[in-house]
Amino acid sequence: MGNNGGPVWQLENQCALLRVGELTGQIELNQPAKGIANPSWQGEPIGAHCLGIVGDGQQDQPLGPVQDSFVRGSDLVVSYAPTEQRPHAAQVYWRAVKAAAGGVLLDVIVFLQTDLLESYPQLATCSELRCDEVLVPTRGPADESLPIVESDWQTIENETAKPGSGCVLFRHGRSSWSYAEMAHPQDSVQWQLELTPPGRQIQWQFSGEFLEKGVIRCGRIRAALLPREADLRLAANYWAEFAAQPPPLTV
Fold it and tell me: What are 42-70's pLDDT values in tens digits?
């Protein structure tokens, strides 16, 4: 799904402009750690950036140089070349589509490969958001006959190194929007939440699994911008839909 029939992404040199539904933002291709920078919902800023990609959980350690980039439908695809310090080629898909009830879904999918016979690449996503309330569901979306309801959510403060998959929802004052990030239950990830006034920073850290030449490793995180009045229900629904999706095809 696009943006009222118009293009979701506009690629101009090393910058990709995003407009889908009520969401706008931009990606500087040579700054993957910032991901979607200056995101706004109905003109209101939601944070500094979301869905940035870093190689080892540190924002000052970006991926290698841009090798190729193009737009295909709702996808912005950027290839990053390996370097001596980071000997892994990466292809990153940033995907943006309209969702039910006026929401917008943002997926980041990263494919890693190497020419080494043995390696253990680290991968993390990073978002920095305006918020004063953070909520998580107390259970996962595995049981389709018993959907997550409002009473299944709890408020948290600062949390670190949470294992397994999950879903985290952010609210900011009386804003009309809420923001959620979620992992797929089949992916081995842990998340870390830190206080970064005036909001929070969240990182999803993928385990450094063994990777060798000829093998492609994949990581994925979904974000959702959604109307505040139905945010808990919509976030649970989006997470359940995400959990039911098969792994993405390798490139």
Answer: 899 998 899 998 765 554 556 889 999 99
9-243: CATH, from 2.70.98.10, 3.90.870.10, 1.20.1290.10, 1.10.10.60? 2.70.98.10
* Range with the poorest average pLDDT among 166-170, 232-236, 245-249: 245-249
Residues 6+ apart with CB under 8 A from 50: 25, 35, 36, 39, 106, 127, 128, 129, 179, 181, 223
- Residues contacting residue 216 through CB under 8 Å, at least 6 positions apart: 111, 112, 113, 250, 251
Query: Which region holds residue 173: left if phi is over 0, alpha if psi is between -120 and 50, else beta?
Result: left
pLDDT digits (tens, 9 = 90+) for 63-76: 889 999 999 999 99
Closest to 148 measured CA to CA, from 169, 170, 164? 169
User: Token match 């990581």: residue?
Assistant: 219
| Nearest residue to 221 via CA among 55, 128, 130, 92 | 92
- At 41 the three-state DSSP class reads strand
* Distance in angstroms (rounded) separating the CA atoms of residues 182 and 60: 24
